[in-house]
Amino acid sequence: MRKVLISLMVASGALFIGSSAFADETVVVPGGPPPAEHHEVTVEHHNDGDCHTKTVHKENDEGDSKTVQKTDCN
Fold this sequence. Notes:
Blueprint: H1 2-20, E1 39-48, E2 51-60, E3 65-73
Antiparallel strand pairs: 1-2, 2-3
């Protein structure tokens, strides 16, 4: 029983010492928000009788683009 108690004490001491060696340090650098990305947006409207079409084209600085078209007809 004594050996078991000593073993548990040694193991818990080693765990405490080992866990303190892995403490993380956080450094906060003051500054403003990161610069916003530039998006170029083009909106086109087209009416054809009873239908209205809206086309939105977006492109960012990296050249990625997306076009969405919505048509409503009465």
